[in-house]
Design a protein that fits this description.
Layout (H helix, E strand, L loop, with lengths): L1 H20 L7 H24 L7
Helix pairs in contact: 1-2
């Protein structure tokens, strides 16, 4: 449950970065920082979604 909540929050952060990015010019330092932030948020969101999945038993 905690992992899914974290995934949801990170997805919202990723969307925020996307909204900010739409207001920044290509090739600027600020745009590069926002792109990096969005990438990190996306990666961690995906990792938290995987963590939230029930484990598979391989007996």
């Amino acid at each position: 449950m905690i992992a899914m909540c974290a995934a949801h929050q990170l997805a919202q952060l990723e969307a925020l970065f996307d909204a900010v990015r739409s207001h920044l010019a290509e090739g600027t330092y600020e745009r590069a920082l926002v792109d990096m932030g969005q990438s990190v948020a996306s990666r961690y969101s995906a990792e938290m979604r995987r963590t939230a999945q029930p484990e598979v038993c391989h007996d």
